[in-house]
Amino acid sequence: MTSLPNPDNRPLLIGPPTGPETPFPFRMEGKVISGFGRGSKELGIPTANLPVDDETTWIKNIDSGIYFGWASLKLPASHPNSVLYQKPPTSEPVMEPVSAAVPQQRQQSELSAKEEKERDQQTGQWQIYPMVMSIGYNPFYKNTVRSAEVHVLEKFGADFYGVEMRLLITGFIRNEKDYSGLEALIADIEFDCEVARHSLARKGWRVRELGVVQGEEGGLDGGWLVR
Ligand code: ADP
Ligand code: RBF
Ligand code: MG
């Protein structure tokens, strides 16, 4: 159970134990872009924003509100949270002959920074996490454009802008609200996180691709997240 304040007496579990109900789950994907730069990170609630454009039909057809489900990120091997990550060796100062310090000419085989980044992205492997997300106009901030932003329920050692993200949206939590102050907004988001954690921990809501957890395999097909 949770010890978070719950003034509106909101339920901690959404949906039946058997799993997502029609029309869920929804799928979405995109590369993480910069958001409104409001410093959500400083509030402890960073949100990975996904591009939203008029041609994308899902965003037009889905109701605004707060949703929960699973996110997968194709983290490059250079990201500290990647399962492929290898910590750089702690570099002891090395005495080198003066000639070695002279800048070398760029070799044909060397990659530009851009090429290197692209190659790095290709080394990525999909990793799955629970998430909460907001779709809409953030009434507290009175946005004029519709946004889709995902708070991943995991602590990351570095940002992941530009990384491919896939979503399996399993359910609706609540409508977007306006608030009299930032504290009330944050409290509601923290409770949303608890709702997602508890709801997704049930067998019928856990994706099979996460493997066996406490002796049990998940009942939900998350193949899309790792394909
Ligand atoms: P922006 O306004 O650019 O979206 P935020 O303050 O919302 O900035 O921070 C979002 C960025 O923080 C994401 O794009 C991602 O790179 C990084 N980040 C780190 N941890 C998380 C997390 N748990 N969930 C979502 N994004 C995270
Ligand atoms: N913004 C709102 O204006 N009203 C909301 O009810 C609201 N709920 C949110 C719930 C979640 C789970 C998340 C991730 C964001 C929500 N937001 C909401 C968006 C929020 O205002 C935005 O991420 C801010 O930049 C956070 O400081
Ligand atoms: Mg954001």
From TrEMBL:
Comp. bias intervals (Polar residues): 102-111
GO biological process: FMN biosynthetic process; riboflavin biosynthetic process
Compositionally biased intervals (Basic and acidic residues): 112-121
Known EC number: 2.7.1.26
Domain Riboflavin kinase, first and last residues per copy: 21-201
Family according to the record: Belongs to the flavokinase family.
Name of the featured protein: Riboflavin kinase
Native organism: Pseudoneurospora amorphoporcata
Biological classification of the source: Eukaryota, Fungi, Dikarya, Ascomycota, Pezizomycotina
